[in-house]
Design goal:
Layout (H helix, E strand, L loop, with lengths): L6 H6 L2 E7 L3 H13 L5 E4 L15 E2 L4 H7 L5 H22 L1 H4 L6 E6 L6 H15 L5 E2 L3 H4 L7 E7 L3 E2 L2 H15 L2 E3 L4 E7 L2 E8 L4 E12 L15 E12 L8 E4 L4 E6 L2 E6 L17 H14 L8 E11 L6 E6 L2 E5 L5 H17 L1
Parallel strand pairs: 1-2, 1-11, 2-8, 4-13, 11-18
Antiparallel strand pairs: 3-7, 4-6, 5-6, 9-10, 10-11, 12-15, 12-16, 13-14, 14-15, 17-18
This protein binds flavin-adenine dinucleotide (FAD).
The site of flavin-adenine dinucleotide has 44 residues, from helix 2, strand 12, strand 16 and helix 10.
């Protein structure tokens, strides 16, 4: 007879109120929000990787909500209300994340955010006033200030950059610490997490959901049952929602060896947010430049893109490190979920399936707020 589940497995391991697919920041936050309101709910999180394997442990650790250049560019494809709501969700998400886990557990350092402006690019005083007026209700104060003199303090190349805009509300975190704390929090609230468990298929009936995975050890399929399912698989969500406007977008990240007297201090965004860099434990982290090869980076494979990597190394040496050569000791890529605009897709897809996907490039900020919205839809 083929392998089949026991009565004990059936009663204690396979039946849940809610199953969440994906243990990134969105899925884990959804589990925490659910269990904070329904302490006795049976919640299972299924993660295909042995570690969370999307963007949440592979990002740059910016606790950010949008640089002036990026927000101005967003205003070309979204209306004022949409942009304001997005910035508010990011900022509120960050406050909720801090409240839930605490700044120490996040490695949260509020050093401020910076946008160095390359020669030939202009963000006018009128544009800054406009952005500050737009965002004042969210931050209860002025967000962006021109501080050109900081280019010297941070040792940035003044032949390349001519200006800098500062905001005091941005911070950096240690994404590993954040995810470790979030995993512990979800487990302490009662969520069960199974890793190495790729969900192959979802089946919906009028009595509930079947979530089907491969049980490699027993050479069979295993079916978990739930009242409702949330899909929080971000850049990998086409598997479940082929018709949704979501595409994978890979990002490259490099971290240097320790650099004595590194002047960079805080988070920095260039070129509408496409290039970003920061200090981390005396090292320089630099990443992005996806716009050099948008199609090549439209991938769910965690591969290196040599064209982008050599550009980022050159950019670091020429414009950040005063021509000082250095080794890059860590190099990785991560996969985001993006679409025609930056608004996440958080919706009831059917009676028993909720989608919480497309967190874009600011999911550290958006993931918590989005998880809370997913939890509300599940609990409805
Ligand atoms: C290189 C890079 C740098 C970034 N930098 C920043 C930054 O500095 N600040 C910021 O705010 N945001 C940043 N982001 C974006 C941010 O990391 C993401 O928006 C956020 O992590 C998304 O979280 P998530 O939980 O929605 O998705 P993910 O973290 O991608 O989680 C989805 C999970 O679903 C799992 N999964 C997929 N399919 C299945 C399946 N079939 N069965 C089971 N599990 C499955 C995946 O393994 C993954 O763990 C960056 C992203 C990248 C790639």
């Amino acid at each position: 007879m083929a392998y089949s589940s026991s009565l004990w497995e059936h009663d204690s391991f396979l039946k849940y109120n809610y199953i969440i697919i994906g243990s990134g920041i969105t899925g884990l936050s959804a589990a925490c929000s659910l269990l904070e309101h329904q302490a006795h709910a049976r919640v299972l999180i299924l993660e295909r990787g042995l570690l969370p394997s999307g963007a949440s442990t592979r990002n740059a650790g910016f606790a950010c909500f949008g640089s002036p250049g990026e927000i101005l560019s967003d205003l070309k494809i979204m209306n004022e209300n949409e942009v304001m709501n997005l910035v508010a969700s990011r900022y509120q998400g960050l406050q909720l994340l801090r409240k839930r886990l605490g700044d120490e557990a996040l490695g949260f350092e509020e050093k401020g955010g910076h946008e160095p402006i390359p020669n030939g690019v202009v963000i006018s005083d009128a544009e800054l006033h406009y952005l500050n007026d737009l965002l004042a209700p969210i931050f209860n104060g002025k967000v962006f200030t021109r501080k050109t003199n900081l280019l010297t303090d941070y040792g940035l190349n003044k032949k390349y950059f001519s200006d800098l805009i500062f905001n005091p509300f941005e911070a950096q975190i240690h994404s590993g610490k954040m995810m470790e704390a979030l995993l512990k929090k979800a487990a302490s609230l009662g969520a069960k997490i199974i890793t190495g468990c790729m969900v192959e298929k979802l089946e919906e009936t009028n009595i509930g959901m079947s979530v089907i995975v491969h049980d490699h050890h027993n050479h069979s399929m295993l079916t978990f049952k739930a009242d409702k399912v949330a899909v929080c698989t971000n850049g990998f969500a086409k598997q479940f929602f082929p018709d949704k406007d979501i595409l994978p977008a890979r990002g490259q990240v490099l971290v240097s060896e320790k650099i004595p007297h590194l002047l960079v201090n805080g988070t920095f965004h260039v070129d509408e947010g496409y290039i970003y860099f920061r200090d981390v434990e005396g090292r320089l982290l630099i990443g992005g430049a996806r716009n050099l090869d948008i199609l090549g980076e439209q991938s769910t494979e965690f591969e290196a893109n040599e064209k982008i990597i050599s550009f980022l190394k050159q950019f670091a040496i020429e414009n950040i490190l005063h021509q000082r050569e250095c080794n890059f000791e860590f190099q990785w890529s991560g996969i985001m979920g993006v679409g025609a605009n930056k608004i996440p897709i958080i919706e009831q897809v059917s009676d028993k399936i909720i989608a919480g996907i497309r967190m874009g490039g600011m999911g550290v900020a958006l993931g918590t707020a989005s998880g809370e919205k997913v939890a509300k839809l599940l609990a409805n």
